[in-house]
Amino acid sequence: MTDLSELDRGAAPGAADPVKVLLHRHRELCERAVDPLEIAAGLEAHGITDRTAARFRHRDVFSLAEELYARVPRDADTVTDAPAAPDAPAPEGGRRSVIVLLLPLLPGALCAAALVALARTHGQTRLYAAAAGVVAVALALRAALRRGPLALPDGLASRSATGSWTCWLLAYAVLGDGLLRTALTGGPDGLPDGTTGGDWPLALAPLLALTLAVAPATWTAGLFLAHARRKLAVSRGLEDFAASVRPVLLGAVALFVGALAVLVALCAPLLDAGPVSPAVLALGALLFVARLLTVHGFTHAPRVILMLTATAHVLAPATVFAARLPGCAALGAPVEALTAAWGPTAVPVLTCGAGALILLVHAARTLARASAHLRPEQAR
Amino acid sequence: MRIGLLTEGGYPYVGGEGGVWCDRLVRGLDRHEFDVYAFSTGQAQEDAGWLPLPPQVARVRTAPLWTAEEDGVVHGRRARRRFTEHYGELAAALCHAAEPGTAEKPGTAEADRFTNALHGLAELARDEGGLVAALRSEQAVRALERACRAPGARRTAREARVPDLLTVADHLERALRPLSLDWYEEDGLGAVDLCHAASGGIAVLPGLLARHFFGVPLLVTEYGVRLRTHYLTRPDASPAVRSLLAAFHGLLTADTYRAASYLVPGNAHARRWQERCGADRAKLRTIHPGLDATPFTRVGEDRPEGREKGAEREHAGPHTLVWIGRVEPAKDLVSLLHAFAEVRAAEPGTRLRIVGRPSGPEGEAYLGHCRALAAQLFPDEADGPHAVGRNPVTFEELGGPGAETTADVHAGGTVTVLSSVVEGFPVGLIEAMFCGRATVSTDVGAVVEVIGGTGLVVPPRNPRALAEACVSLLRDPERRARLGAAARARALELFSVEQNVAAFHALYLETVARTPVRRPVLDGAGDPQPFAAPAEAHVPGHWTGPTPRAVPTWAVETPEPVTETVR
């Protein structure tokens, strides 16, 4: 049905090659199309039908699209090189981002306030202050971990029940060393009195340091995430990506442990506690790596390792107590030997350190996978 | 006959795409049983609930496509190996596939490879209880990377970077979610006699698998071509992503077209796409979508009487052109307004009613633009020096006074105009035909196919031609009436719900008749009993029972109306 007047109408006046005009008009569509059908679909969306195609001396839109596809220059170099690294998540309102940035500081601040309150009060009031402090810090922790890079993606919250094991570990950090020490010397003769001295002393410095460390943890995790995404955008293959992400992960963990060490060193003199114990560092590293793994969707390993570590912590004093039973003295021997050699902190240092190492090795394998970084981006 | 109706984002959800059509089909075929297998496409859809279901819907099973809980299925070593093998095959088929739409047919080797990989994955999912975790795993991404880097892969695939691989893997995971469902049991999709997919694309996957596992015949209706929609939905992705996903959808479509017993395009446009993508012409049966003609009966029937009463037009008021639709740039209202200016030059006093609401912000802006243009082109005019004037062009929305329904609007118009530059299947035009109106439309989409010879057709973007056509109709009431009557007759013949349902019924019977019996009914001696399973699941009365024979209707003396009106 191609008559000349129709043909003239489809082409610009004077153009000997009507398809060229069409090509010019739809240049962008033709250049980025990956196959002729894409051009055909695009042309149809612009209202070009088989009858229009007839003006270009084609049977239908498909053959017209094929001609366009064949005629458009398409060298290997035209493909846009390395798309720019995706921008960081758009900052959503200044006020909100400030809140998000400062929220991780809240648990530490509350914990410090609670410790001050504990130091200023006595007797019954002190008990209330302690209870209020624990509740406040717990709520602040919840809020701080609700958003930001350490927040769990939707749908994961139900399956990562590591909270109770974390509580066990924290409780041991506060109470454990004192209990172990006094247990080895035949105690304890009563409940802890809430001070850092006495028969069953509390170690409050680790707690303060760890709550303060929520902030560096959040920030280093954010750094890790941002770096990993940038590497993801520019790496050529999966092996490349894995190789480039592993140092970033190790660096992030080292950075965090360093920050934690500084915090511990600052906290210990303030609370008149003894020298800095590496147990806190090990515990901090363990919790940090476990959280990193969990937020990336790997919930199984952190749960198991935290459970094992907490169990080991409970077992250590338990064996000491069990050794007091007649005929069971051998049960307490390992812990006693350990403590005799390196002091009571040897138990948490060894267990947490081992746990953290195992998790770190695991993380170096799993977080180096590209698929691990897929879901948080696509959370909707 | 038990029919498995496969839908995606449509029936039985309220307001789903194609939901109305499926509802009419299910209600129209009350002698068959329907099992509905539906994918929902979003939380909002699930919250909106279902349409009321007629009793012939025996069961409804739904699955979300938009979210997948990790099923917690951990594969053993052998299952993992099987998965890697099949997924790798699938990925290789994607990377090596000839570009769909090129002159040569899609390579059969690749198509076979794709089909086998799909079946392999489906069998694995059935054996192991789910694939969600595996499809999301690093193994999948690695297999994809290997396939892209393999020698012989397409250039665009070779250029895939890690984010591209992840995007493609994620998309494949979504697309292959139907494999992990527990629908492929003897009492699930194995129990139906026929799978009818209400659309192409992902909705067909359960039908393909039912065919693979149980030999259930598959019927695919495509009122809009999913492959084409897919090309238009992902404009911003990188070339590698678009090329791999286009290959996936192209291969899936080709596989669908090969496996289906019949393909039902809704119009010639869909049919051409299907032929292009490798559908066998012998399998194609065009069935036009049906529209409920009842609301238009009054207006449509009214016409002849009015003509007899006063050929010199009983409503002696000025002529009115009517345009109904959603206001958006593709409708080219600007061209309509320019055409109307020429119409007014020839026929002063003519009015134009533009009825419709804008779609989206773009439509809002366009509507504002058109209003401004109308105000510029046509000054307000009044009947006399003491009357308040008004603009000959009115912009209204459905539901306003004098425009309660589309039928009312058509009733008040002399000629219905369609000025689009892009159009799919023009439902508004069919409504005008049902109302018995003479129409002038632009030659886009399926317009010519719908209108046949019962209306005037002009080229798009040609206001003068549009105006000339309108004027010629406005000046010739005889011709208007003739064209209107012909249009109504054509619409009732081709686009009524009844023809749609009857055509599907016939196609169901034809499909089943060409499929070997899968569960032969045996008599006492163990021999197969022919005709034991009637095609209809519900037959009024006992057709084999000892009740006295009913008198056939043709034997009863009833005055038959000469022209059958469709209710």
Please outline the helices and strands.
The complex is a heterodimer of chains A (380) and B (567).
Chain A: H1 4-10, H2 18-25, H3 27-32, H4 36-45, H5 50-55, H6 61-71, H7 94-102, H8 105-120, H9 123-144, H10 163-184, H11 205-212, H12 214-234, H13 238-270, H14 278-295, H15 300-322, H16 333-342, H17 346-366, H18 375-378
Chain B: E1 2-8, H1 19-28, E2 33-40, H2 43-48, E3 57-64, H3 77-96, H4 108-128, H5 132-136, H6 138-149, H7 155-158, H8 162-175, E4 194-197, H9 205-214, E5 218-222, H10 226-233, H11 239-259, E6 262-265, H12 268-276, H13 294-309, E7 320-324, H14 333-346, E8 351-355, H15 360-377, E9 393-396, H16 406-411, E10 415-418, H17 427-434, E11 438-442, H18 447-451, E12 456-458, H19 463-474, H20 477-494, H21 497-513
Parallel strand pairs in B: 1-2, 1-4, 2-3, 4-5, 5-6, 7-8, 7-10, 8-9, 10-11, 11-12
Morphology of chain A: elongated
Radius of gyration of chain B: 28 Å
Question: Which sheet architecture does the biggest sheet of chain B show?
Answer: 6 strands, parallel
CATH superfamily of the largest domain in chain B: Glycogen Phosphorylase B
Q: How does the helix and strand content of chain B classify structurally?
A: alpha/beta
Number of strands of chain A: 0
Domain tally of chain B:
3
Strand content of chain B: 5-15%
Quaternary state of this entry equals heterodimer
Binned, the helix content of chain A reads 55-70%
In terms of per-residue confidence, which ranges of chain B show pLDDT below 50 for 5 or more consecutive residues?
305-316, 561-567
- Residue-averaged pLDDT of chain B: 83
The CATH C-level name of the largest domain in chain B is Alpha Beta
